[in-house]
């Protein structure tokens, strides 16, 4: 089902009237919606059953003191009777769906109502704007409604190749003179004697090529 709602008296006021109609017509029995605190310095997700309280509803307030999906999990865990409409931002909608997969949010009697997110200020910055008498919502709505398609980015020019200097030649070690063969052991017997005594006395040196020491 699709439809359009005519904006009258401001975007936020139109959303408030739409939510009030959902309560008045029994589409939902309660609304989880960001509600301004009495001093107006914050907007906290609150379960509302009285349509008169929706005058303080601030679904577009650019502040997020707590994720609405977490509050929705607490509301559904208590077994609230009736159907609940949850007014959530896109990120909160995704969080609610993921929490439902691990049964931390029960969506059986919940109607998810998505609201576009205009971005959020840190709570301290939002409080500072309100204390200075500034409206944090109207400038964001004006900027969102006047957005034009972004111009295409210019083609990126290829980066110039990095200069490469030839690697210095590796230093060569000085050539060593060929090593002379080791001198024959003075105590080594002749080849004939070594062949005769090799198996018995294991007498050896480098000439008979055994593992025993010369001796």
Low-confidence stretches: 196-208, 210-215
Largest sheet: 4 strands, mixed
Helical stretch count? 6
Strand count: 4
- Return the domain count: 2
The radius of gyration over CA amounts to 43 Å
Structural class: alpha/beta
The coarse silhouette is elongated
Query: Helicity level, as a percent range?
Result: 25-40%
Portion of residues in beta strands equals 5-15%
Spatial order of the strands forming the largest sheet: 2-1-3-4
What's the end-to-end separation, in Å? 107 Å
Mean pLDDT: 79
The arrangement of helices and strands along the chain is HEEHEHEHHH
Descriptive terms for the model:
elongated, single chain, alpha/beta, 215 residues, 6 helices, 4-stranded mixed β-sheet, 30% helix
What does this structure look like?
The protein is an alpha/beta fold and 215 residues long. Strands 2-1-3-4 form a four-stranded mixed sheet. 30% of the residues lie in helices and 12% in strands. It has two domains: 134 residues, no CATH class; 31 residues, no CATH class. Helix 3 links the parallel strand 3 and strand 4. It starts with 10 loop residues before the first helix and ends in a 14-residue tail after the last helix. The longest helix is centred in the N-terminal third of the chain and has 14 residues. The protein is elongated. The C terminus is likely disordered.
SSE blueprint:
Elements: H1 11-24, E1 30-36, E2 43-48, H2 68-77, E3 84-89, H3 90-101, E4 110-115, H4 123-131, H5 138-145, H6 191-201
Parallel strand pairs: 1-3, 3-4
Antiparallel strand pairs: 1-2
């Amino acid at each position: 089902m699709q439809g359009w709602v005519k904006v009258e008296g401001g975007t936020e006021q139109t959303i408030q009237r739409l939510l009030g109609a959902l309560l008045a017509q029994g589409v939902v029995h309660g609304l989880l919606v960001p509600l301004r605190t009495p001093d107006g310095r914050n907007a906290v997700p609150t379960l509302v059953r009285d349509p008169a309280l929706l005058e303080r509803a601030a679904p577009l307030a650019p502040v997020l003191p707590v994720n609405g999906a977490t509050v929705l999990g607490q509301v559904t865990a208590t077994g609230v009777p009736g159907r609940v409409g949850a007014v959530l931002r896109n990120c909160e909608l995704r969080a609610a769906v993921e929490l439902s997969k691990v049964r931390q949010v029960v969506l059986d009697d919940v109607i998810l109502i998505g609201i576009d997110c205009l971005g959020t200020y840190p709570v301290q910055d939002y409080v500072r704007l309100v204390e200075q008498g500034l409206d944090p919502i109207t400038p964001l709505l004006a900027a969102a409604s006047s957005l034009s398609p972004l111009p295409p980015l210019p083609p990126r020019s290829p980066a110039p190749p990095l200069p490469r200097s030839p690697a210095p030649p590796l230093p060569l070690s000085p050539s060593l003179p060929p090593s002379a063969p080791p001198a024959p052991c003075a105590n080594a017997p002749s080849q004939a004697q070594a062949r005769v005594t090799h198996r018995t006395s294991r007498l050896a040196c480098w000439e008979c090529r055994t593992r025993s020491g010369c001796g």
